[in-house]
Structure formats: structure tokens, C-alpha cells
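Colleagues,

Please find the record for the four-part complex below.
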Amino acid sequence: MTHVAQRAGVSAMTVSRALRKDGAISAATRQRIMAAVEELGYVLDQTAGTFSSKRSGFVAALVPSLNNSNFADTARGVTDALDGSGLQMLLGYTDYSTAKEEEIVQSMLMRRPEGLILTGGRHTERARRLLTRAGVPVVETWDMPGEPVGHVVGFSNAEATRSLVHHLHERGYRRIGYIGGTSNRDTRGADRRVGFLRAAAELGLDRERIVSFGQPPISMSQGGEAIVQLLSRWPDTDAAVCVSDLSAFGALSECRRRGWAVPGRVALAGFGDFEIASAAVPSLTTVAVDSYGIGHRAGDVLLQAILARRDDRAMPAETVLMPFRIIERETT
Amino acid sequence: MTHVAQRAGVSAMTVSRALRKDGAISAATRQRIMAAVEELGYVLDQTAGTFSSKRSGFVAALVPSLNNSNFADTARGVTDALDGSGLQMLLGYTDYSTAKEEEIVQSMLMRRPEGLILTGGRHTERARRLLTRAGVPVVETWDMPGEPVGHVVGFSNAEATRSLVHHLHERGYRRIGYIGGTSNRDTRGADRRVGFLRAAAELGLDRERIVSFGQPPISMSQGGEAIVQLLSRWPDTDAAVCVSDLSAFGALSECRRRGWAVPGRVALAGFGDFEIASAAVPSLTTVAVDSYGIGHRAGDVLLQAILARRDDRAMPAETVLMPFRIIERETT
DNA sequence: CTGTTAGCGCATTCAC
DNA sequence: GTGAATGCGCTAACAG
């Protein structure tokens, strides 16, 4: 910066000002400085800037997996909401593990984010403690946690699945099964199973008709194996609710290979309204969530909280309930 | 850190040592310090550490899109290769735009990464200049650039698609079409079209039989619209090569809806060996690339280069050609 | 609109 | 194995 300053015939401080948008510099001086910057190939050292200003200029966003269009859309929403704020989003992925989430929370906090966006409402005790003590705003998404860490932008996965089962019941299905992963690692998946069980209890359906298959998130091929297990164990099953569209598509493909008509032999429903749900033949009944909207809204809430904090204003914890809706298609 | 030091009855320097793995501290002292750290909820400020040590402890990885299992696998590979090195990967996505790539390169460089991994070999002039001047190792992936910026771990997309077309020709297909996006925004997609044209020229096939549909990356539904256009414009088409498995699946679904037998009426092939390629019915012929391996190898190469640089050793630019292979399935 | 001074929280270096 | 002095490159705060 001193080099640039010398070349432009100004002080380092003036270079610093020219490199930030907040003005207080004459157009002519800025132009001269920018020319010097380009000539020297100077790139501002944000590390030093952060250190000095105590503003890191970024927020951390943690998602379970990169390869999931729902979370990719949420990340896009966050990025868009932050656009123009001078804040950048740094992404981390937890592989659906709260232990890994804890690690990433810690390593993110070492870089002093101005806020964090998390997926889900379940965290390790230590992660909760770190987050609380960090003193920066936190938004939990894709869930409705009982005891939120801070702000929330999400919905109840249990409630959404419960609605889906009720919907199938209204359509006349009575022997409904559930396909999901073997552990509670995917906490949203576990919540969906809870919703299935709740609806089954309310409607007097069989609550045993559950196939758990593979470590979450379960793949298309695991969905295929699961539907075979479900129908061989309970051959009178007339509908299967799957933890995600991907497993539902796997089940659908396996049915096709075996000549089982969908929805004639068995109806299928997924979760998430991935592109494949509408592209599949027959198209998949599913639960649509506004993934992008969750991210955008979470970004908004976080930004407001960060701005409030900069002004030493307190911002009350906000909980935004996002809508979901059942999309009936050809598999039911 | 001073607080922690006081509580543990040592100097700040000793706390700094305790928080890094490099030893030179007694077990008893470290234990006392760790206790104080936990009690106070202290989290090391890596910004200050980076600033002082001139090591940011991270590498930047830029991918075109998050929602793509190929690039997600590559990112996983990079993360795994870096595991244990003390380097963290920070991810950015470019939306398949070199202009956005330039922006992200700049904002990453402001945080002083110790290395960068890029997807593709085409960049804006300014991005190239920034990268060259940054003085840190760079690895380009998923491509075989003519003039690499630094190291390369990839393959030729043109060559892979050319092989696929030759493969179809050997299987007896003679009126082969190509489905891709409308612009060169997805540079790997553009290279695949080049490979198609090259093979068509070599084999004496019709070189006009191309449908470009939508902004890359093209969606499943755009793949569906494209196959309809292709077959209505050139009804004698006996095979279609698609820029990706996703568009190929969209084409496949549309054929099914219209009662066009695949591969009877038209054969289809994709690119990438996504999970959907094997899950689809009929399963998709495609080109498999070792996405995870590209990431892992790129991470390895970058790590070696970073370690060499730390020791002031020069490391010659390395080019690693990764294999691809045609996977013949039921759509051809 | 521009310059000067001071200091952000660590790690490096050297002393002991 | 531990401590003290020093400085990393920038920006806040204030002066002019």
C-alpha cells in the first residue's frame, strides 16, 4: 500500500480510502491511485484490514452437503441476500454430522465471521457453547428447533411429512410405508420419520411399516433396495413415503425394472421437489420447500442482526416459519 | 490470549505455543492452559495469527456450481487430500461465468490463500494476471488448457466426447446429433461440442445436427425440449450425444412420455456418470470421469507446491492427465 | 479532501 | 521449556 501511495503521490491512508467505496476522496486522486494499483498489480490485504477494523467481512454458512440442489439453492439465496452489503459468504459442509459441524464451527470462528447460518437445529453441546459465546448473530435454517441458538428461518420437517401422510390418506391410501436412513445422522430425515409416525398414530395406520436403509443421506440405489424390502415384507403396502426425492426416484426406477406399476401397484412420494421429481416418468409427488427463499430470508435476517450489532443495537431473536406445500403428481 | 495466560499463570507466548501442535511445551503447562481456554471459551484469532505468521492456512477452490455431484466430489477430494496438512479449503462458485470467476479470484486473493484450485482452463485476462502475480501455486482442473496458469490435473473434454462419438459409430450409429447449451459460458460444454464436431468430421457424419438449448448448464427439462427439436428437425437421427447426464435424462424422460423407444427410436448418451445415469430406466450410456480423484490429485499437487514454496524450493509445473472411460449402458 | 499517529492480537526471534 | 521485544499491513480517530 505504501508502494502504491508513493507511485500515486499520496499517503497510504488515502490509498486505503480509494480502495473502499465509502468516498471522502476526490475523483482525480482515486483515478491516479487506481492506475497505480493496476500497474503494480496490488491486491488489498484483507487480513490486515480485518485485523485493524475488527470486521472480517464474511459470514459462515454451513450446509450438510454440497451435492444437494436444495442446499445449493439455499446457499445461492444467502449469497444474493448479502449482495451489496460488503459481506461475503464462506461455505462449509458438515457431511450430515454434528461432530463435523462442531469442528467447522470452531474453525470458522477462528476467522471471526460476523455471523453464521446453520442448517438444522441440532448441534453438539460444545458447538452450542461456542456459538453462544462467539457473540455474533446465528441463524438456524431448514428446521424449527425447540431451543434455538438465535434466529430461525425454517419449517418443521415432522409437520411437513405428517401433512404428506394425511394427504395420502385422503386420497384413499391406507397401508402406507416409510423409507429412510438407518441412523439419526440426518436430523431432518429423523424428523421426517417422526412426522410419519405421528400421522400414522393419528390415522390409525400401521406404525411398523418402516424400512431403514443405509447411512443418510440415502442414495437412489438404496431407495431401490428399500422399496423391494418394504414390498416383500409387507406385500399389501399401497404407498411409500420416502425421506427424499432421490430415494423416491430410486424406488420408482426399481419398480419399473420389476414391472410394478406406480402408482397402480404402489404409490410413491418423495421430499424436496428436486428437478428430478418433475422430470421423472411418472413424475413424483413430493413436498416442495422454498430452498432459495430460506437462504435469502436467512441472509436478510442475519444482515439485519449484523447491522444492529455494529450500531450496538440489540435485535430480538426472530423466528420465520417458511411455508411448504404438497405437490401432487403422477406417482400417487 | 492475555486473559488465558493470566488465568493459567504463564505468558501469552506460552498460550500461543500450547494452541499449536508444534510442541516445545510441557504436558502440565499445556493442560493448565487448555483448562483456562475451555473455562473462558477462548477461540484463537486466526486473523491475527495469519497476519503475524504470513500463513493464511487456507487454499481457495473454485467450482462452477455447487449443485453438481461431479464438482461436489472434486471438492471432497481436495478436502481429503488437505486433511492433516493444517490447510483448510475455502470454496467459491462461479456460476459457470469467467467474469464471476475473476471477481471471486480477486476476493479470495484479498484473503491471501496459500494456493488456488480452479475448474477449467479459460479465464479472463485480468484473472490470469491476478493469479500469476499472486505468487502462489495454482492448479487448473477438469480441463487440459493450452496455456496453463500453473499446474494441471484434468483431461480433454473434447477428446472424451470425440471418443464417445467414435464409440457410437462403432456400434453402428450413423446419424448422430448433439445437444448442448446456447453459449460458450460453460467452457467444458463448449469443448465437448468441439469434440463432437471433430469426430463428425473424422467419420464423415453430418456436422449440422446440433441443437443448442438454453443457458448452460442446461436442465433436465431443456434436455427434453432439445430432443424434440432434434428429432423434428432431423427425423432420421439415430443417436443423440448430450452435454451432460442431466440433459440426457431429460431427453430420456421426454422420449418416454412421447412413446419414442430408447434406444430403438433414438439412442442417447450423456456425460459425467452422475448417479442418475445408472439409476435411470433404461440406464444411460455416459462418460465417466474420476471426479473425486481429480480433486484429490489436485489437492496433492497443490500441497506439494505449497510446501516447496515455504522452503523456498521451486516446483516445476506439473500436468496430470486423468483418465476417462465410456460406460456403455442401456440407452445405446 | 488528505495526512498523522497509534494500535489491532498474534507469531517470530532471540535470550535465558 | 518459557519469556520479552518487536513488527506484520492495514484502518480508526482525529487534526488540518
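Chain B has a mean pLDDT of 95.

Comments are welcome before we finalize the supplementary table.
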